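Hi C.,

You asked whether I'd gotten around to modeling the 174-residue construct. I have! Everything is below, sequence then structure, no commentary in between.
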Amino acid sequence: MRIVQATLEHLDQLTPLFVKYRELFDQLPYPETSRKFLEKRISRKESVIYLAMPDDEDKILGFCQLYPSFSSLSLKRVWILNDIYVSEDARRQLVADRLIQTAKQMAKETNAVRLRVASSIDNVVGHKLYESIGFVEDTEFKNFVLPIESNCGPSPQRFDKGRRGNPQPAQRCG
């Protein structure tokens, strides 16, 4: 298995996996919007996306997407492991482990102070994976979310629980 950084040439293969990842969190597919989103992240260098691929073919087995941030307290870069997905037929082959190890190496190479990941409370498999790689649960800080309302979008007053237990904004238009 090889890990490569995504480029615009990977969009045709990456988009369907990204759509499946979003559907895991009860989001509507929106394949064209998803493709444009990924295209912007890659072309503007706003995120780093790693792809796991078999050594002998160009099929994508899984991906992870990282966003840069910074720590004012440590005066250093922080990377946020925002998305990770492995196709169903590639699970239990250490794909996620290899992706995260690559992300960890990149974080070291960019002199980051830490790599952060958030996970749904009930994602026991993910928790075990993160802990096996060296992530520790943050007991110092509690995270909060402030929904930002748009003309046609999430209502800040009401959140529904998605299938994976993540807050899903109720849609309100008009």
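If it helps when you're writing up: The domain at 2-143 is CATH 3.40.630.30 (Aminopeptidase).

Thanks,
B.
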